[in-house]
Design brief:
Blueprint lengths: L6 H23 L11 H23 L12
């Protein structure tokens, strides 16, 4: 029988897939800088701000320590 995947291995497998997919999508956005498209500096700034805000939010999730259950009390 196959060995069960532990939490760290699952994290690594999914993170590899998801980050690879995200990078590919971001690289595709670079195509919008080509001569077939026209944008304003404001539109470009809005794109990068949205991406940065999303990255910052995800990074914050990784920075937070595990939440302590305050409804339980022990000495």
């Amino acid at each position: 029988m196959a060995e069960a995947e532990n939490k760290h291995d699952k994290f690594k497998r999914l993170a590899t897939q998801r980050v690879t997919n995200a990078i590919k999508k971001i690289e595709l956005m670079g195509n919008l800088a080509g001569p077939g498209y026209e944008s304003t500096p404001e539109e470009v700034e809005k794109i990068f701000k949205a991406l940065q805000d999303t990255l910052d939010g995800v990074k914050e999730k990784f920075s937070k320590t595990k939440r302590v259950d305050k409804s339980k009390f022990e000495l």
